């Protein structure tokens, strides 16, 4: 999330932070993408297909209901319940501030104005930090799964098509004709080159015609 409450001070630390970020951020994105693509098969696609085939409901209706239920479960498990827990564990936080921290963290904004586990007199502080790290990682994966689920809805796909750049039919026909002409010219060039190769490989033939050879033999 990049809260900014812990920063490198030395030049070596700053250089290491740059190199580590350049390598670590792409690998983190690849890891999250791979995990989300595998989770969404079991959490979204198979349940929707099961209710569609087993009960005969419309696939679009099932997908919408499933997305809403999944979104409600994610908000409850990663926003409301953790906010209540943080409001109890953190002395200076109320429920709104705790919910604000959950939203800012899982949306990857990470302003850093609220950071849990900063009190040195807090019990089990190290274990508390590890638990927060696991919560943030699982919450980020859950958020990506929910976003991917909503993006697969048919209605949102139609809405996204409004922002696509449409090509005119005349331009498409011109491109197709140009492609055909290029293909035809390349084929003709290949045929001409093959003929030239065949002529070059033919054995040397006498320039005299067969009739002249016959007449010379008769004489």
From TrEMBL:
Record keywords: Ion channel, Ion transport, Membrane, Potassium, Transmembrane, Transmembrane helix, Transport
Residue ranges with Polar residues bias: 204-219
Pfam families noted in UniProt: Ion_trans_2
Transmembrane parts of this sequence: 18-40, 61-86, 98-115, 127-147
Membrane topology: Multi-pass membrane protein
Boundaries of every Potassium channel domain copy: 2-39, 75-151
Region feature (Disordered): 189-219
GO biological process, alphabetically ordered: stabilization of membrane potential
GO cellular component: plasma membrane
Locations listed in the record: Membrane
Chief subcellular location: membrane
Any one GO molecular function term: potassium ion leak channel activity
InterPro entries noted in UniProt: 2pore_dom_K_chnl, 2pore_dom_K_chnl_TWIK, 2pore_dom_K_chnl_TWIK1, K_chnl_dom
Name assigned to this protein: Potassium channel subfamily K member 1
Source organism: Acanthisitta chloris
């Amino acid at each position: 999330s990049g809260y900014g409450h812990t920063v490198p001070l030395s030049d070596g630390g700053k250089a290491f932070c740059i190199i580590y970020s350049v390598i670590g951020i792409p690998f983190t994105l690849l890891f999250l993408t791979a995990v989300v693509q595998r989770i969404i098969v079991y959490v979204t696609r198979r349940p929707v297909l099961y209710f569609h085939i087993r009960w005969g409901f419309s696939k679009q209706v099932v997908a919408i209901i499933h997305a809403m239920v999944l979104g409600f479960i994610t908000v409850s498990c990663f926003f409301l319940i953790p906010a209540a827990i943080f409001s109890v564990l953190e002395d200076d936080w109320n429920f709104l501030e705790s919910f604000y921290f959950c939203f800012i963290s899982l949306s990857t904004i990470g302003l850093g104005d609220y950071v849990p586990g900063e009190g040195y007199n807090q019990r089990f502080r190290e274990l508390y930090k590890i638990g927060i790290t696991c919560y943030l990682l699982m919450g980020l994966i859950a958020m990506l799964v929910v976003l991917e689920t909503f993006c697969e809805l048919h209605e949102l796909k139609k809405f996204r098509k409004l922002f696509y750049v449409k090509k005119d039919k005349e331009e498409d026909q011109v491109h197709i004709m140009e492609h055909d002409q290029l293909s035809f010219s390349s084929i003709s060039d290949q045929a001409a080159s093959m003929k030239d190769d065949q002529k070059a490989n033919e054995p040397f033939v006498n320039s005299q015609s067969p009739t002249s050879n016959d007449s010379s033999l008769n004489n």
